[in-house]
Amino acid sequence: GQQVMQIPQYQHVQEGEDFTTYCNSSTTLSNIQWYKQRPGGHPVFLIQLVKSGEVKKQKRLTFQFGEAKKNSSLHITATQTTDVGTYFCAGTGNSGYSTLTFGKGTMLLVSP
Amino acid sequence: DAGITQSPRHKVTETGTPVTLRCHQTENHRYMYWYRQDPGHGLRLIHYSYGVKDTDKGEVSDGYSVSRSKTEDFLLTLESATSSQTSVYFCAISEIATDRGGTGELFFGEGSRLTVL
Question: Could you tell me the CA-to-CA distances from B39 to A9, A86, B42, B93 in Å, in that order?
């Protein structure tokens, strides 16, 4: 079945440093979504990427979808303590009938 | 936040007992999903529904059953709970399918923490 791998599992940064999490799929994806989950909370949708090579920005967050639509990344510039949480990517397969598959997530800790 | 209510929010039960978790939505979204979240495993799909009385299995459906008799309610049942089913369970909804290349954004409930002793 479809697998979505995410690295790193965990990252601890100082406030102001940049952060990047990477997502790789074993198969071509039709689209990829990103979610953020605060400690003790529920996942919250951040963005969806659909097109090959697509880049989207939300303030300090930059999302990219690879040209082959098999990988994606989330980059946070100048992290803040409010960025703390776990970031998940989730992809939908490109062929047949497939549901959204989540990566295992990257936990981000930001020290002031 | 989307109108999604999960109940109970916390439950402790013993091995072998039946457990039902309820997800109730006020958004009239067509699609509903049950995920479990465990450390090191992320979110894994248990079952989902694409309409009233229309359900299908996810990647970790063994030991679980679901029912959807009304648009707004999606029930997850553990017929005979086991310790391996100790987890946090999230219900999610979407208006557009997340499968077959759909573009459905998921809205999650607050979660139900289940402990099976």
Answer: 11, 12, 7, 23
Nearest partner of A99 among B19, B57, B91, judged by Cα: B57
- For residues A24 and A77, give the distance between their C-alpha atoms in angstroms, rounded to a whole number: 21
Q: Is B45 on the interface with A (CB under 8 A)?
A: yes
Closest by CA to A42, choosing from B12, B2, B67, B83, is B2
Closest CA to A108 of A1, A2, A21: A21
- Residue B105 gets which letter from DSSP? P
A81 in helix, strand or coil?
helix
The per-residue pLDDT for range B37-90, each reduced to its tens digit, is 998 888 999 999 988 999 999 989 999 999 999 999 999 999 999 999 999 999
List Cα–Cα distances, A34 to A48, A56, A62, B21, in angstroms: 7, 12, 11, 26
**Which tens digits make up the pLDDT trace of B15-41?**
999 999 999 999 999 889 999 999 888
- Asked if B79 has any chain A CB less than 8 Å from its own CB, the reply is no
- Is B102 in contact with A94 (Cβ distance < 8 A)? no
Query: CA torsion B65→B70→B71→B73, rounded to 10°?
Result: -50
Number of inter-chain CB pairs under 8 A, A vs B:
61
- Across the strands, what pairs with A44? A36
**What does the pLDDT read at residue B97?**
65
Sign of CA dihedral A55, A107, B21, B55: positive
